[in-house]
Design a protein that fits this description.
Elements (H helix, E strand, L loop, with lengths): L2 E3 L1 H14 L4 H22 L7 E5 L3 H15 L4 E6 L7 H12 L3 E5 L13 E5 L11 H10 L5 E5 L10 E5 L2 E2 L5 H4 L4 E5 L6 H4 L7 E3 L20 E5 L6 H13 L4 E6 L4 H7 L4 E4 L17 E4 L7 H10 L7 E3 L2 H11 L11 E2 L3 H8 L5 H15 L2 E4 L5 E3 L5 E3 L12 H14 L4 H20 L8 H7 L8
Parallel strand pairs: 1-8, 2-3, 2-5, 3-4, 5-6, 6-7, 7-9, 10-19, 11-12, 11-14, 12-13, 14-15, 15-16, 16-17
Antiparallel strand pairs: 1-10, 17-18, 18-19
Helix pairs in contact: 2-3, 3-4, 8-14, 8-16, 10-11, 11-12, 12-13, 14-15, 15-16
Length: 492
Amino acid sequence: MKYVLSNLQIREWDKYTISHEPIASIDLMERAAVAFVKQLLLLMQEKEISLPHIYIFCGQGNNGGDGLAIARLLAAKGFAIKVFVLNLKPKGSPDFELNLERTMALHLSVRQITTIEDIPQIPNQALVIEALFGTGLNNSINSLASALIETLNQEKVFRIAVDMPTTGFKANYTFTFEVFKTSFLFPETGADAGEIKVLSIGLHPGFLEQLEDTQQYYNSFEPIKFEVISRFNMKWQKGHALIVAGSYGMMGAAILSAKATLYAGCGMVTVYIPKVGYTILQSTIPEALVQTDEALTEIRSLPNTQKYNALGIGMGMGLHSYTVAAIEREVPKQTLPLLLDADALNAIASLWQEGKTFTFPKQSIITPHAKEFDRLFGKSLNSEARLAKQIEMSKALEIIIVLKGTHTSISDTTGEVWFNLNGHPLLATAGSGDVLSGIITSYLAQGKSPILAARMGVYQHANAAQYIAAKGIINASAAMLIDALPYLEPVH
């Protein structure tokens, strides 16, 4: 299980390691610097960066101490290094001061930045390493630090943050230590981190064993790559899913969801749509069975669901009054494993806003993005507050919530949360959510528990984007995500 921990927890983990390994804090700092330099050399090789001008900017805390240790190690490997210390107080942390002594003893260039005039001009194509504050920043930065960061953000330098970028610093990469930090999860605090590399520095594993379950989040899924599939399986043994979706002008959502359900391994898929979509579905997905509502352009009722293994509702349904009435009337009594997405959620939000009663079937999965979540449960001050509300609502309503975003969060009925750390910008495209709903519904139909289906679905959805990106594709449609699904390693 991979954990996602807060800055405070990481600092406590450092202390735990220092006392239980035991190891001196300065030696742990050296271990972090060794890991950083090793990763940096690999990255330079990968990006074909040779003999760059390296500028290292340090604060006076332990993050700055990391930067000084990194400077020494790079200098020992023959790189030309220039070190700058943002001097905001008479003395730094003990480990910073000790590393400063070690750096000065090597006669490396270390310059102090005490005024704006001390900020250097950085040549194009330089490599900038930022080690100003890291996890130690508790307050907003002052004007001198802001001016420095503005200089560091010039477009023609390559920027790497040590452990965590200082507020405003736009890193190309962040090399963070031991685990992914909660600060990276939210756009307010993680948008400037660039690509994140997690480097192990051997923190003591005993710290994780004594954490309470409510004190950490988890990586959404770590795949087990060896799956035994019987060659005697029949299609009905692989599950029969029902997708209820589509309306006039939005039949694409039904197509994407149904096709993703099939491509994620479900044996049979029936699509229930308005009559207007019959020819479209039959010609686009010949493998799917099609049923139609009595209405021409919208869905006004749900079919009998007894013969199906799972049910996915809402993709592209629209908000016709008859559709909303059908959601209100028929969804609460469903007993199948159930996923609700898109307009099913918007319909429920409108019902609640009108003061009407709607109850989710227990263990339902809902898959809102942030705006849909806010329509359902009210606006939140920021992403962290929204996460707290997500956990609260999962527990109170006894449902699984998949809150879609860069790092999609998945909360279960006990309040545990998993984050997807495998996301990719290619997922930010129209129809991507419909694909995700189809994948999760497919896993439900194949007999996975709701929380496992949600975690597997989110993981494989992101994995499809990673698969496409690895082929050099920089822009993709939702249909391309579906086409990637059969090529992914199975997870279970």
